[in-house]
Structures are given as structure tokens and as C-alpha cells.
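Handout, section 4.2: multi-component inputs.
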Amino acid sequence: MNAGLSGKLLEIRGKFVNSLPERKERLIALHSKLTAGTCTANDMDELRFIVHKIHGLAGTLGFTTLGSFAASLELEVNATIEKGGYSNTFCDGVVTLIGHVQDAIDA
Amino acid sequence: MKILAVDDDEIILELLKEVVGAAGFPDITLVTSGAEALHTIQNSPTRFDCFLLDIQMPEMDGIELCHLIRKFPAYRSAPILMITAMADRQYIDRAFTAGASDYVTKPFDVLELGTRVNLAARLVQEHAAAEDKSFALEALRDQIETKSPVAISEEIRIEGVAGVIDKLAFENYLLQLTRGGLFGSCIVAFQVANIATIHQHSSGTDFSNTIIDIAEAISDNLRRSEFFLSYRGNGQFVAICHKVVMDTFNDLPGEISMSIRDMELVYDNGAKMDVQLVMGQPVKCGFFSSKSTLEPLYKAVDSAEGAVQSLRRLPNNSGWSSKIDTIRNRLKHPSAKNVSKLEMGF
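Output:
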């Protein structure tokens, strides 16, 4: 890979990291709704959307753990939306993702 | 090469711009929605050569956008690469059904994406060369009576037949399935044994229409499974079928041959056309451990070619029509399957 592209990728990686605090805040808000039992269909769609975007970007930009976890959680979100209802394990998965997002911010 | 990239995430768009630019294609337009993409296409003073589409987008998803792009006559064969985190087979199938040429899953390797865009560029060049040739042939046709301007090896474009995608898309589809480890499918190849004779006695249009008719007959008889079918030139078709019981293939050659026979195909001069279609042995994708291989495809093709050789070794007095009649009888009495096994190249 040429130096120019490497530099650009680092820049884009920085932008992605800068976008993470906002995504993390949304994840925290959605997790609160999940635990309070007030999560609507729109909230679940938003959760799916955020997790999907993290899945797509994180791995490509070198955040392998975050990307892999987001990929597995995306499958769970899709299954949850399809069948309706969710478990404590599912809520724990969202907490774990928030932790990985924080790790990427701190990296 | 002029590229249009569509993704609702601006970071991905920026990434695509840099990666594709580094691969040697700096002329890239970035838009964030399907609606904006259509508006851009309609108002662009020059034609786009290639499209990079995300699938998961609000309002109009990338698959619907792909379908709509294919409706523009100028973009019927332009490369469309889906770049998406959706790795499920249902999305891959829907994308190729909508007309996608290739499918790249996120997270993607930046160097690999560059390679895939380069392949698309090669396809654009080939299409441009084919168009030039086509214009030249049109001009010549007024002056010279050409019997068959379509080359026998040409990958004739087949539209409007269920499950049919072009050769490159088929290979990309297969590669995508093997990358994802989505096994459990099988590939089967069909070969028109007397394609040289049909080609020799047909006009270009006649030959193309015959290929389309044969594709339709195969497609109709594969409908019991989920499948994609592709024409590879030289009278050769390949299909990938999902969720099939292998035994159901036993009757397929006879059934397809009967469908073709029922079409009562004729040459331009009204003479009856005899189509001798043979089928190779179905090859299970799961038998191969390599994750990025077209080996099952080649094995299926080899098997069909072997079936043609077996057919040619039959005594000359056992004409094709009598063989079909024999198969028809065997299908009525399934206890004896010697002939249908022969047609399948076992």
C-alpha cells in the first residue's frame, strides 16, 4: 500500500474514532430503553442501523474486535426484531459493544 | 472510468474515494441515497461506467437501486458492485437477481477492493470493444450477407429468463458463496452437443434466440429449487442450485430435452432444429475445501464435456430423437435408468 493511501486511511480512521462518542451515546440511550422495557420498533431499527454501520466500518479501519463483535450482535438484533422480545443476554451484548466502542475511542 | 458510489455513511464514501482513487480511478462521484443516485444518473452529461452500491440504506436500499439502474438502457451491462456488510445468502441472491455484477462484503480489504474495481474496469473495456465490433458489424451487414455474425463462443446476453445472470456475475456469485463458507449447494453444467451444427445453419438472430429458448427450457425445469443459471458461450450452460435432493437431477436431462422438443424449434428456412442437450454430473460445492475457488464449476463443466464425448461414442444409428424417446419411456418406468445415467455422464 502506498504512503499516500496509508496516510488517507489514517485520516479516515481518525474521523471514524471521532464519530464513535456520538454512536456510543445513542447506544447507551437505547440500552436504557431496553432495560426499562420501553424500546419501540423504531428504537430497534436505530439499534440495528448503528450496529450495522459499526460492523461495516470498524473491521475495514483496523478495529477487528469491535467489528467482529458488532457483526455477531447485528445477527442477534436481526433475529430479535424478527421474533420480537429480547433477553437479558441480548441487553448484555449491547453493553459489551459499548465497552468495545469505548476501547476503540481510547486506543 | 467514471464511477458512482452510493452509501449513506459519509466515512465509507470517503474510504471508497481514496481506495478506488489509489487503484487508478479518481473519477468518482459520491452520493448518500438511492434517490440522489437516480437524480445524478439522469442529470449526468456523461455516462457512468461503474457503480458501487451499499445495500442497507434508509428509504431505498441498494438492491432496489441496482434494479432501477438496470432499467436504464445505457446501464444494462455496466458493472455494479455491491459493497455491503450484509453477508447472508438471501441478500447475495437478491443482489444478483437484481443485476449486480459483484458483491464485496464489509469489512473489506482495501487492496482487494482495488483489484475488484480493476476487474470491473476490464469488463467496461470489453463491453466498449464489443460495442465497437457490433457497430462495425451493423455497418457491414448492409453490404455483405453474413450467415452467422454471432460467434459460437460469444456469451449471448439473456434477459427476461428467470434465474439467468451473466457469466462474470455467476462466477462472482460462486466466489462470494465460497468466501462466506455457504456450502450445501451444487453446480451442474449443460452442453448442447451439436452446437456447431446449429451455429453453422443459423443466422445471428436465429442462433441467439435458440440459446435463449434453451435457457428458458433449463430455467423452467430448475424451478423446483433455488438457482442461478448462466450461459458461457459454445453451447454451454451452468447452474448453481440450492436446497436440492441430488436424486431429483436424474430426470432433469430428459425433462429439459422434452421441453426443448415441445418448443418445436426451427431454422430460418423452416427446417426442424434438433437440439442435443446433455447434462454433466452435479458437483457439490461442499466437497471442496479451498475458500476462493471455482473448482466445482470447472469440474461440472468438465463432466458435461465428458458427457458429450460419451454421446459421440454411441453407435451412429442411435439417433438423438430415439434417445429422447428412450428417456421418455424410462421416465415412465423409472426402474431402468441406464440411458439417463449415460446422458448425465456418469
